[in-house]
Amino acid sequence: MGRPSLQRTTKKPRTACGNFLHLEGQLECRVTFRESSFTGVCHITPADLNLLGLDWFDQLKLADVPLNTICHMISQPHGTESYTRKLMAQFSSIFQPGLGQCSTLKATLRLKPGAKPVFRPKRPVPYATLPTVDEELNRLQQQGVITPVSYSAWAAPIVVIKKANGTLRICADFSTGLNAALEQHHYPLPVPADLFTMLNGGKFFAKLDLADAYLQVEVDEASRELLTINTHRGLFQYNRLPFGVKTAPSIFQQLMDTILSGIPGVAAYLDDILIVAATLEQLHERTTSVLKRISENGFRLRPEKCQFLLRSVKHLGFIFDADGRRPDPENVQAIRQMPTPTNISALRSFMGLVSYYAAFVPSMHDIRAPLNGLLSKNSTWKWTKECDAAFCKLKSIISSKLLLTHYDPCMPIIVAADASAYGVGAVISHQFPDATEKAVMHASRTLTPAERKYSQIEKEALALVFAVRRFHKFLYGRRFTLLTDHKPLLAIFGSKSGVPAHSANRLQRWALILLGYDFDIQYRRTKQFGQADALSRLINEHSTTDEDAVIASLSTEDHAQCYLTTAVRALPVLESEIQIASRNDPVIKKTMNYVTNGWPSTELDGDMKQLYHRRDSLCVVNECLMFGDRVVVPESLRPRVLKQFHIGHPGIKRMKSIARSYAYWPLMDQHIVDLVNKCAQCQQAAKSNAKVPPVPWPQPEHPWSRIHIDFAGPVNGTTYLVVVDAFSKWPEIVPVTPPTTTQTLKHLTELFARNGLPEVIVSDNGSQFASAQFQEFCKRLTIRHLRAPPYHPQSNGQAERFVDTFKRALIKSKGEGTPVETLQNFLFAYRTTPNDTLPEQKSPAEILMGRRLRTIHNLMLPKSTPPLIQTTSRKLPTYNVGCPVFARDYRANRDPWIEARVVRRMGEVMYEVEVGTDRWTRHRNQLRKRLTPERPSTEVKIPLDVLLDTFNLPAVPTHEEDQKVDLRSRRWSLRQRRQTVRMQVDPKNVRY
Description:
Layout: E1 25-33, E2 36-44, H1 54-60, H2 80-90, E3 106-107, H3 130-142, E4 146-149, E5 156-162, E6 168-172, H4 178-181, H5 192-199, E7 204-209, E8 218-219, H6 221-224, E9 228-231, E10 234-238, H7 248-260, E11 266-269, E12 272-277, H8 280-296, E13 307-310, E14 312-315, E15 318-321, E16 324-327, H9 330-336, H10 344-357, H11 364-367, H12 369-375, H13 385-398, E17 413-419, E18 423-431, E19 437-446, H14 456-470, H15 472-475, E20 479-484, H16 489-493, H17 505-514, E21 518-523, H18 530-537, H19 546-570, H20 575-584, H21 586-597, H22 608-613, E22 618-621, E23 624-627, E24 630-632, H23 638-645, H24 652-659, E25 663-664, H25 668-678, H26 680-684, E26 706-715, E27 718-725, E28 731-736, H27 741-755, E29 760-763, H28 767-770, H29 772-780, E30 784-787, H30 797-812, H31 819-831, H32 844-849, E31 884-888, E32 897-905, E33 910-915, E34 918-923, E35 927-929, H33 944-951, H34 959-962
Parallel strand pairs: 3-8, 5-9, 17-20, 20-21, 24-25, 26-29, 29-30
Antiparallel strand pairs: 1-2, 4-10, 5-6, 7-12, 7-13, 9-10, 11-12, 14-15, 15-16, 17-18, 18-19, 22-23, 23-24, 26-27, 27-28, 31-32, 31-35, 32-33, 33-34
Helix pairs in contact: 10-12, 10-18, 14-17
């Protein structure tokens, strides 16, 4: 045969154990056996394997050849199928359907210091899916996954996604607040080097997969409030660890490492468990130990994803078998299988990829010279041998080890993904300290016929989801950067408010997939996006592998078909009618052509304008134009559709909600408004006119000039009379038992005695206020009484609002004391709290009393020394401890002063003095200084102070006062001054 050249092939055959078999290429050859010969395609593989298919058997007539000779046999003590059945029978409890429950640990979520609760409102659910959503909520509740609650400070909205089989999946969108508030759970995921060390040298392998891994772990009581979801049926709390919580991967990894510790050759990577051994007996022993640990801890496995007795295993971009570790050829397969460019656009995409990696290969500029000539201006397209050689050389360089790096979880991870009209491409790379990037792995695939009809935004989103799924083992549980060149995706996948509620359902489902990953999405211009752009464009656009077709049929085509079927069944027309009408509608026909073949670069006019602005959300399914998950109704069918939507005569708002669940066309909302406004039955049963805006009460000129009164309750068997001053907002609340007119007037009289008579009283039409006795009371006190109109409590809004505030305060304060204490505490707090509606935001007490009331909060303020009030210009004496004094004696029939001695100073003006054996407390004004005689003397000396005090004479100026100098200039005439003659006091004389 010589050495024929091989042709490129896109087929990916699998072996019996499920592993991919690498193909070098294919060739067409003529085969002869006995007297039969034919021409067939032969696929070439580097493995020592010769295999004939059934088509060759038929052509060569080999069915009659005896095939009882064994060419090569691998001896195994147990067949894989029988071995698996025995294991499942031995550990039947962990392979049963249903949800397991970890019996050894409960997960705990910790908040960052200062984190504040985030409560998100519920998202609208289409009416058509409400019964199915209720069924799913009931199922989760029966399984113990969620529990209904009446109150929670935290709440996250839910995302409801319909699967291809018609069932729903409900997940919480914790990206709306909880994830940002959670403290990071510091437990590292397995380092690749450690896993490689364990896997190297292994000859036999096994892989186990946990079913709904996170939901098998309970959450402790304190953390369940954080996991509250807000639904149309109210609040539910998760009892299990849900998907989408930021700390869930590290929590689960720590749990699995704890459970499997001590078993050699075993490693858990999140919900996957890898087992490696040198012999089959050793593998059986380790597998049995792992299954026993799983059973003891209450977990359950997914049997369809568990593999036993493997001879090779793929992990993190490498293949491990008895020969050791080798790179997975799929890492660069997308580069090697790039077809030769056939036009300028394809070549430009490839040159963008070359420019992206040019920093690592300086000589790349010389190699690309022939290709640069084709990109020059005014050049003619001609693909020469030099161009082909340069193209092959550049592909070889890009796919070589020179531009690839090993995966390192400690380095920044970047994932870039892009989509073209017929393919998606992705690359995962590391960013080095000098800001350069090196690829770890490339991936690409072609789009199925159904996917090619997606809108461009859906194709770009599909590329991101394809990239994250393909690189799942590298990305899950780690933070990474996701790059896209389609800016609208930043609002859908990168919004901190969560998944947009009105995104197309397909985009919502993909956004839900990405909720489980910790990433930051960024926009990058297409010119700087060569690493992914080329992978999506330079791809065999006419071939699709079986694997891709299966994935597409499960995740996209069936999903869109499911929504199309649901939508058209709800309409009065059949799917076939919509298809026929769409082909005959010129606008929809032209739009479907644009969706399939590409939109023009300039904006369209007329009826196409609205559809052009929504082009990113349009797609074609079964010859019907879809706007998200809604059918675009042709113009000829719109009157019938509107009539169907109006069955039961819903109002404008409800009719719009129904219509938006199934159909779309330009100006649909306006058509609904016109239909309802022209419906005679709807107009006859319409609601009352719009309410007139409330007219505010005039502002009172002074406190207690207008008061608003009402009754609150009964609350716990007690009815309260509520009085609010319109000027100061000062409230008065009095229990009234029974709430009669007589009791009401009694309490009002007491209030008027304290605060004065008001000018106006505003009340509702309660019997107590409408009675003749109450009217006579107001007339006698010259008080104007105003009553609110019947069934219009807003007119007495001042009292009505306060009644509501008071009732809620009683509910909040339940159990904090007696009803009287609760009432007084509320009144005191309300009266002393600043009010936004009052001038300068003062409190009601400040407005009514003109001062701030002292509260317990004043105890927190530092004390300031008040200024001393000088009541006299005379300097008062100060007495030290031990100083002899005269103390005032108030006992009957005693001298007014008695000798004493200072024992202790008790304050600025208070002293403790010792009188004989007793101790008295005296003010400084009640003490006199006592001079002790230095020598005995018969002369009786009476203190001057005593004399002055006894005879009511003026005080004698002190020496210091005599020394004062008047510095003022003299402005009066001088006069003669004589020496003062002082009176000599003789105690014996009574008169002078």
